[in-house]
TrEMBL record:
Cross-referenced SUPFAM superfamilies: B-box zinc-binding domain, Concanavalin A-like lectins/glucanases, RING/U-box
Species whose genome carries this gene: Geotrypetes seraphini
Transmembrane annotation, as ranges: none
Chain ranges of the B box-type domain: 87-128
PANTHER family: E3 UBIQUITIN-PROTEIN LIGASE TRIM
Matching InterPro entries: B30.2/SPRY, B30.2/SPRY_sf, Butyrophylin_SPRY, ConA-like_dom_sf, PRY, SPRY_dom, TRIM/RBCC, Znf_B-box
Protein's UniProt name: Zinc finger protein RFP-like
GO molecular function: zinc ion binding
Keyword hit for Metal-binding: yes
Length: 401
């Protein structure tokens, strides 16, 4: 079984929900003709948008009307039955506890006995853990490309990221089941068209927005949705503040002083670097908060892992468990091991930070212009805390309520 035929691949794509990117479950069809899982479209319409609209073509409906698509449900059922049949030479159904190898030719997981059979002797075999990691990396790249393409279609991004993180947490052998068809469905899923603007000229022609303007438009809509649905109320934790930092105004503000404060040297406190964390930390979900910066030329904002080193110096890099951007001598930077300058359209006075813990992203925005600045990608494995770093005594940092 070297691979699926183009006809079967096309069938898999046609039976894929454009929201969750999985095969349809309890499919329903809208008046515009597009179909979705009943649970997917229901959750999309739970997000207040002012009216009911199709996530694909954006057609608006005055009433919430869903029609069961029995033919589509039956087709999915037949496809599941076909894929449940063991492939030729698999022979491992009775030895599930000994599945150690993945056959790249047959897309099947094998035990130590079957890998020596005639059916797989000339095939490419690799350990299941290595195969799972390679496919997860490939799927992650495809998924993030789709998130970028979806732009302002935020309900789809919300639901598909939940499905993505759930699937990636599966054990290697379970994740590899039909893995190529899963990736193929993600690559070929039908996505909404880019935003277009109707030009009121003589020809009344639809033309696509310039890339930069379209990207900024999508960023503004996305940030507006994020701030409405995932706003987190965070305050600074004085017990973590470096002795040269003063936290005041009920944990909303912090500044750096010239003199060291008389505070206890508790385990949570940074004793060398001018850092302070928030009281609130996150272990899952999506969270958005804003930070205002008043004056000062040396500061940084971001997140850090709970186990970050508190005693002695620490480098502000992802390798040390810190994901942040900052201002240094009038130059904005993403704090990475190599110098990474950022180009902003205007000075940053209010930053918006959006943490998607499950997807492994921390994104930075200019909360005033709603311009996207930078995004770090990392698979978070422990509690994450918002962080403020203040080198300059002129800087005044404030967490917006």
């Amino acid at each position: 079984m070297p691979g699926r035929s183009p006809a079967v691949q096309s069938l898999c794509t046609d039976l894929t929900c454009p929201v969750c990117l999985e095969y349809y479950s309890d499919p329903v069809t809208l008046a515009c003709g597009h179909s979705f899982c009943c649970s997917c479209i229901s959750r999309c319409w739970q997000i207040p948008c002012g009216s009911f609209s199709c996530p694909v073509c954006r057609q608006h409906f005055a009433r919430r009307t869903l029609e069961r698509n029995w033919q589509l449900a039956e087709a999915v059922q037949h496809l599941h039955a076909q894929q449940a049949q063991p492939s030729k030479g698999s022979g491992c159904a009775k030895r599930q506890q000994n599945l150690k190898l993945f056959c790249q030719n047959d897309e099947s997981v094998l035990c130590a006995v079957c890998d020596r059979s005639q059916d797989h002797r000339s095939h490419s075999l690799i350990p299941v853990e290595k195969a799972a990691q390679e496919y997860k990396t490939q799927w992650t790249q495809n998924f993030r490309k789709q998130r970028a393409m979806l732009g302002a279609n935020f309900p789809q991004k919300l639901l598909s990221s939940k499905n993505w993180s759930k699937t990636c947490r599966k054990p290697a052998a379970k994740f590899l089941k039909n893995v190529k068809s899963t990736i193929m469905r993600c690559e070929t899923a039908k996505l909404p068209l880019p935003n277009v603007t109707l030009i009121p000229d003589r020809s009344n022609t639809l033309v696509q927005c310039p890339h930069q303007d379209s990207q900024l438009f999508s960023s503004r809509i996305l940030l507006k949705e994020i701030s409405q649905h995932f706003k987190a109320d965070v305050t600074l934790d004085g017990k973590t503040a470096n002795p040269y930092l003063v936290v005041y105004e009920n944990g909303r503000r912090v500044k750096r002083c010239d003199t060291k404060q008389d505070v206890p040297d508790n385990p949570e406190r940074f004793d060398s670097d001018p850092c302070v964390l928030t009281c609130e930390g996150f272990t899952s979900g999506r969270h958005y908060w804003e930070v205002e910066v008043e004056d000062g030329r040396h500061w940084a904002l971001g997140v850090t892992k709970a186990s970050v080193r508190r005693k002695g110096g620490v480098r502000a890099t992802p390798e040390e468990g810190i994901w942040a951007i900052g201002l240094f001598w009038n130059q904005y930077r993403a704090l990475t091991s190599a110098v990474n300058h950022l180009s902003l359209s205007q000075g940053l006075q209010k930053a918006g930070l959006f943490l998607d813990f499950d997807l492994g992203e921390i994104s930075f925005y200019n909360a005033e212009t709603m311009e996207h600045i930078y995004t770090f990608y990392h698979r978070f494995t422990e509690k994450i805390f918002p962080l403020v770093w203040v080198w300059s005594t002129e800087a005044r940092i404030k967490l917006s309520p």
